[in-house]
Amino acid sequence: MAQTYPSIQIKGLNHWFGEGEARKQVLFNIDLTIETGQLVILMGASGSGKTTLLTLIGCLRVIQDGSALLMGHELQGADEALMIQSRKRLGFIFQAHNLHESLTAMQNVRMGLEVHGPIAMRDWRSAASRCLILMGLQDRMDYLPGNLSGGQKQRVAVARALVGNPDVILADEPTAALDKDSGYEVVALLKRLGKKRGTTTLMVTHDPRIMDMADRIITMEDGRILPET
């Protein structure tokens, strides 16, 4: 049966940091629905709550108050088993590539499959090669990160995020280290994945070069989502 629920559905989400008198609210009554296959850009000044929201959707923080459905599963009150299963359906791309310096590009991409268990690992070389070729790195597969440019490292990180065929990709400034053409190609690939296999992308970015590729642009300010225009 075809999926009938949005990839991400958030209602009345609030979040705080700190304890006691130092407790500070950083997200206020967030409502957000993102349909399957959409490429959504999340904008806002530093400290507006973008990364906090991304980490909550990504099961990297516990939902304190409100509802957050990820691919139909409620994260509020979810046990660790559900959180782990949910993370397996996500791909993460961060501004810092976070590659292991002692591993080749192929081996770094392989790590994106390890959470999926031994069955997924059986054909890891083929899967990793395919993603690196998509990123234009077919001649850099056996290179260590120290021998790659900043843009090439980031493309390895994108390949690592894609290798497990995630349902949702959460990206925090993924094109910051890329030149204009490389950045455009990465976002164009994410857009194609949305159309071909329903991959949903939520991307934090300030990159003006890719705004026209988004299905929606959402702006945050002081922990709140502003009305869409």
Going by CATH, the architecture of the domain at 37-58 and 89-225 would be: 3-Layer(aba) Sandwich
Radius of gyration: 18 Å
Q: What form results from the Cα inertia axes?
A: globular
Structural category is: alpha/beta
What is the third-level CATH name, the topology of the domain at 37-58 and 89-225?
A: Rossmann fold
Distance between the termini: 34 Å
Number of strands: 10
Strand order of the largest sheet: 6-7-8-3-9-10
Supply the CATH class of the domain at 37-58 and 89-225.
Alpha Beta
Mean pLDDT: 90
Low-confidence stretches: none
CATH superfamily annotation of the domain at 37-58 and 89-225: P-loop containing nucleotide triphosphate hydrolases
**SSE pattern:** EEEHEEHEHHHHEHEEE
Measured as a percent range, the helix fraction is: 25-40%
Largest sheet: 6 strands, mixed
Number of helices: 7
Percent in strands: 15-25%
Q: Which helices and strands occur, and which strands form pairs?
A:
Elements: E1 8-17, E2 24-34, E3 39-43, H1 50-57, E4 65-70, E5 73-74, H2 80-87, E6 90-93, H3 105-114, H4 118-121, H5 124-134, H6 150-162, E7 168-172, H7 180-197, E8 200-204, E9 216-221, E10 224-225
Parallel strand pairs: 3-8, 3-9, 6-7, 7-8
Antiparallel strand pairs: 1-2, 1-4, 4-5, 9-10
Helix pairs in contact: 3-5, 3-6, 5-6
